[in-house]
Structures are given as structure tokens and as C-alpha cells.
Records
---
Amino acid sequence: MRAAIIGLGAISPLHINAIQSAGWQVVAACDTDAARFERAIKMAGPSCSMYANYKEMLDREQLDVVHICTPHYLHAEMICECLDRNIHVLCEKPVAINAVQLGLIEEHVRRTKARLAVCQQNRFNASVRYLKELFRGQEILAASGTLCWQRDASYYNSAQWRGTLLQEGGGVMINQALHTLDLLQWFCGMPRTVIGHGANDTLRGVIDVEESQFGVFTMQNGGRFVIQATNACSHSFPVTVMLRSANTEAVLIGDHMIVNGTFVTRSDGHPLFGKEEWGVGHINLVREYYACLREGKKFPIDFYEARKVVELILALYASQGKEVSIRAMEANCKAALSVR
Ligand SMILES: NC(=O)c1ccc[n+]([C@@H]2O[C@H](COP(=O)([O-])OP(=O)(O)OC[C@H]3O[C@@H](n4cnc5c(N)ncnc54)[C@H](O)[C@@H]3O)[C@@H](O)[C@H]2O)c1
């Protein structure tokens, strides 16, 4: 099987490492910035072909799968080019940044033989899997997600696409906190409505998107889940997720878990789950995706699953303090497709 990567920036080493650890080879890679080639060649080996134009790479290499690790606004176009050639895709989050892009991807997903998967790798963390098992068959009545991170002007100035509505598609919510909202949705299901507030107080003049976002989602069962996300802190704290059913209350702080008031630990007193960062989630996700490709099985985070969190984010952005129906937002996405 032949794998390739488009976009050789910050996240790409995790993908190269994950592909290799799944027993596959990175045969080609592409970036418009040739300064990015050296590190990729070091990791993938001298036989890895380098391209500046991704369409040329897709046409010349006999690829089985492409990993898309480029700025957000390019995901939809690149996904469609791969699917048109029946090449499987593993795309970094978010799958798209607006309703038109979602519609475009759906059209291509429907007519291709290839499989599109999206890197929402926190679902593959051991602690999150434990929670999923713990709450199996239980209805979640309330939940909360908090992301309190530090991202200053130097972070946003490190790449031209960051912090721009046109290219990033939003701020803290669509980038850093997407994973937290994805977990809330995965546990609670698609909600009925959302009320959201966004703000940019400390990065005015640096970014044209929100540095902080608050959202209250009303679930199908009438309960609520809430998300609070900010990049305005002077330190990045662990993400917190809290879930409540009739019998169980779980608190996840980073990778440390408290269930019904008791720390979940091994008998030797050490945390059960150990340290997990992006890397472990990516490796688990990539291994599972490649196993699904090999065995012809459905990968759980396909386009239809990945679009849910994007629709929730678009609804949050549209809200500006008013209650927005999630179903109406889904209908808008479909309408955006039909008016194209
Ligand atoms: N899953 C996660 O936890 C996680 C973590 C970090 C980043 N990401 C995602 O990964 C993606 C990339 O983020 P990053 O931090 O690596 O960004 P980055 O800016 O460091 O890298 C992006 C790379 O894409 C290249 N590029 C731009 N246009 C291109 C084109 N037309 N053809 C080929 N290459 C092109 C740039 O030159 C750059 O090297 C984003 O979608 C981001 O949200 C995900």
C-alpha cells in the first residue's frame, strides 16, 4: 500500500510516524514550501518523492491513501481531488469550514469508491474509550467541556492562515476546541439547539476570529451540555470533560479520571491511562483506519460522522446570543449545496 502526505507542517511528523507504525510506507509528500522537504525526507527516507503541486503528485504516483495536513480552507478541495481519483483520504480536522464545502464533499463521497476518514483522534484515547464503555447504555443528562489554552500573537503570526476567517474558518472553536466539542457530541448525541457567544478581547488586530467561545446546547432529552473554550490564558491547562447520567458522574481532567468521586487508578496507585498526547491518539486512529481499509470495514469517523461537529460549530458561530436550531443548520447546509 502506498501512502502520501499533503502539507508538511507542524502536525505532519505525527502522520509519518503513525503511517510507519501501522506498517505502511510514505512514498510521496507535497508542500508548496520546499523548506519543509528536508525533515520529511529524514523521516520517510530518501526514496520518498517530493512535490510542490499536489495534483501532479496524485496523477503521477500510484497512491492508495493520502493524508491531508494543510490549512483548513484547503481540505475540501484536496479531499475532492483525491476522491475523484478513487484515492482513500485521511484528512486532518476540520473536514470543512463552511456549508458549501460540506455539500461539495458529500457529493464526492457519494460517487467515489474511496473512503474518507477524519482525524478526530481524541475518540481513540484510552481514557475516552474507558468512558465510552462506562456510559454504554446510559443516557447522558448533562455534560461540560472546558478548554483553557495559551495562544498568543507569535503563534498566530507563525503561519499566514492562522486566525483568519477565510482560511482557518474560525478561531479557538474550530481549531483547538473542536476535539472537545466532538467528544461532547459523541457522548450526548446531536443536540436540538445551541446558544453561543464568541469574543476576541486580547488578540484584537492580530486575529479576525474568536479567541474565546461559549456555547449552551440543549439535548434531545431536554438536558444541556456546555462548552467553554479560550486561547486567552497565559498557560495551557489540561482539557476537562464532565459527564453525568442518572447513576454515574465522571470527570476527566487531561488524562486523569474521577468516577463517582473516586480516582480511577491501578492497584499500584498509578494513573490507569498514563500520559497521552496527540501522538498516541493519532497512532491509534491511523492503525484502526488502515486496518479498516485492509479488511474492507467501515471506519467510525467517516464524512457523515465528522460533519456533525462542523455543523455544531457553524451553528455556534451563527447564534451570536440567539437560540439556533441544529436541524435548521443541517437544512441550510443541504440548501447551500442545491443553490450552487
Ligand atoms: N488532530 C490534531 O490534534 C491536530 C493538531 C495540530 C494540527 N492539526 C491540523 O492539521 C492541519 C495542519 O496544521 P499544522 O499545524 O500542521 O499547520 P502548518 O501551517 O504548520 O502546516 C501546513 C502546511 O501546509 C502547507 N501548504 C499550504 N498550502 C499548501 C498546498 N496548496 N499544497 C501543499 N501544501 C500546502 C504549508 O506550506 C505548511 O507546510 C490543520 O488542519 C490543523 O487543524 C490537527
---
Amino acid sequence: MAVPLPLAGKTALVTGATSGIGLVTARELACLGARVLLVGRDAARAEQAQADIQLAAGPEAHVHIKRFDLSLIRNVQSLADELLRELNQLDILVNNAGIMPGAFTLTEEGHELSWATNHLAPYALTNLLLPLLDAAGRARVVTVSSMAHWVGEIEANREVRNSPDKYSWLTAYADSKLANILFTQELAHRLDLTGITANCLHPGMVNTGLIRADTSTVMKALWSMGRPFMITPEQGARTSVYLASAPEVGGISGRYFANCRPARSSNRAQNRTEAARLWRISAEETGIE
Ligand SMILES: NC(=O)c1ccc[n+]([C@@H]2O[C@H](COP(=O)([O-])OP(=O)(O)OC[C@H]3O[C@@H](n4cnc5c(N)ncnc54)[C@H](OP(=O)(O)O)[C@@H]3O)[C@@H](O)[C@H]2O)c1
């Protein structure tokens, strides 16, 4: 008789699963037996990802596409509504989708693009999916942050992040990644004793498509110089997969990891008052408590 796969019977949702770290994370979770829902905004890339994962995980694997642009809160709400209608429970949520825009961009809803995609979307999606995570009993929320959070300073940078004249892509990106850690800390605190865990991670410097046509020229140059030293998406996805599936971290919550081990985050990322304040701001900005 075949031995059941470790994640058989579990459902995982991975955002930004059409390329890079998210694609490999979704593939590995499917190979471990999870039914995987891929969130992507581009139809062709999502279908290609689905085909790649199906090929790796075999014909019995359940791989589904959810096509949503998560930079808008109303889309996050629609995705959550759909999932709440279709699923009975959600065992694993990987908040992976991320962007590093080179220029100041405001979404239709008036949020700076990296703040909206990298922080507000995970905040809103996780909160809206809490009934499904709760129904799973011991669900895990994994959020992909970055070591770039070390230079983040959310309150002090508010003006730089939100003004076209003063905008710095690095500041905006770093602030959103600092927000990922503070969000995880506050979420873990609020979910204490529920059985749902929340952790976040730095994946390493990974050779992915994070650098796009609109990324700043400086960053493009730095990225291409750094490419030979970067790790592969397979290596970059290891900590996400570990936090989403390894039995030994099933009871750990509110931590920041790198290389599949707890890691040190900046002092600002460990500030409980900041974490609580960010939660209040995020609730105001998204309209979701
Ligand atoms: N690469 C690194 O060295 C590194 C280091 C630290 C942290 N990270 C973090 O790792 C995560 C994954 O990035 P990656 O390096 O794998 O880059 P990537 O290959 O560009 O993957 C990013 C994914 O996010 C999706 N995405 C972006 N904006 C979206 C939106 N509005 N709605 C839905 N999906 C959206 C992208 O979809 P499209 O294909 O449609 O754009 C893509 O699937 C990010 O959170 C990033 O900040 C990366």
C-alpha cells in the first residue's frame, strides 16, 4: 500500500505563485501532497505555472489557479469571498507575492504600490481568511519578508514613501518588508492559543524575476552584478516550504527565519508597540479589522 504524502488532505494557498520563489514553493507543497491554489495576476504565467507543477507533482495532484491582482484591496476581498464560498478549511497560507517598483506608483485605491502589494494585501488576505485557517485546526501562515527590512523605518519614512518627489524605491520596499515582520509578530500574538501559527522569513538573495522593466536603473545594475552570487529559486524556497510543512516548527509562532533557522531581525522589527500601531494603521487603510 502506498505511504500517504506528508501534506495529503491539506490545502495550501500560495500568492505570487507564477514565478520565482512562489512557483517553487507551490510546486514543493504539491509534491508533498497538498492541494495547491496558485494566486497570480497573469493568465498565461498562471497556466504555465499550473502545468509545471502538475508535471512535477503528478496527474493526481490538485493544482488550481486563482487569478487576482492583489495590489487592490477590493480584489483581495473578492479572492477571500471566493475562497470562503469554495473551501471548508485552509491549512497553509503563504503570503509570497511581492514587487519592487522603480518609480512612485499609486494604486487606484490611493496606496503606494509596494506598500499595497507587499504589506496591505497579506494583512487583508490573512485576516479575511481567518475563519478558514481556524477551521483547519493547526493552520500555518508564512509571510515572505526580506533582510531589506533592516533599513526600513515605517513612520519616519511615511512622507518619502508617499510623495512622488521624495520617493525612494529602496525605502518603500524596505518599509513593506519591515511591515511583514511586524504584522507576523502582532498576528502571532493575536492568534496565541488558537492553534494557528504565523512566521516570516528572508529567503536569501535569490535569482528570480523580482527585477522588472520598471525597476530603477541602479537596482538593475546592482542585481546583475550580484547574480553570480545569488542562490536558485529552489534554494530560495526552502525556508518557505520548511515553515509551511516541517513538523518541528508546527508549534513555533511569531518568529523570523532565514536558512530554515530562527534569525535575528532588526530592533525596529521586534518593537511590540510598533507592531500594534501598524495593525491599527493597516486596519484603517484597508477597512479590514
Ligand atoms: N529574490 C530575492 O532575492 C528576494 C529577497 C528577499 C525577499 N524576496 C521576496 O520574495 C517574494 C517573491 O519574490 P521573487 O524574488 O520570487 O520575485 P518574482 O519572481 O518577481 O515573484 C513575485 C511574484 O509575485 C507576483 N506579484 C507581484 N505583484 C502582484 C500582484 N499585484 N498581484 C498578484 N501577484 C503579484 C508576481 O506575479 P507576476 O508574474 O504577475 O508579476 C510573481 O508571481 C517577494 O515577496 C520578495 O519581496 C525576494
